[in-house]
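Quick log. Single chain, no ligands specified.
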Amino acid sequence: MGAQLATLYLVRHAKPASTSGDSVDPGLDETGRTQAVRAADELKKLPNRLPVYTSPLRRCRETAQPLAEIWGVQPIVFPEIGEIPSPPLSLSERQQWLRDAMASDWANLQASAPAGSPDYDGWRRTLIDSLSAMAGDAVIFSHFVAINTAIGAAKGSEQVITFKPDHASITLIDTGTGQLVLKSLGREV
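-> predicted structure:
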């Protein structure tokens, strides 16, 4: 008997109140709160209530809140699907680094990381392995690069970015076959 197939609903966080160049952990702005409610309205149509996982960052936790309230569940903080970790740079330098990183592939991102940076290959492996190990269907509120990491693994791509998910868009990934399989992409920017 094969492994249980699980469908993961990867939801990019809704629009934050500020950019990564202005704040390390912004919450949602008014548009973002509306987007979070719309995503919840779409997800509540699923036939079953699913576990709700969220990145530790505020913009993801606030995006998850409307669905968690509708389903009467407590979101589970899942650090492994959080934002790509920052190198030791100022906020403005980090913004430029992130733009360059998103235009790169994983080998170049790792090779060009500033001194003192996290292990990006390790971060990527941990994220993919954590999603691959999910035992059942789940809704996961995460980030642009993290969702792209899952999509890239499903497509066999080494590019950091292969898709531009819009705020509060929902991408479906299947797992349980020992790998991630892209089921459908969410709305694109």
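The helical segments are 30-43, 58-71, 91-102, 106-111, 120-132, 144-155.
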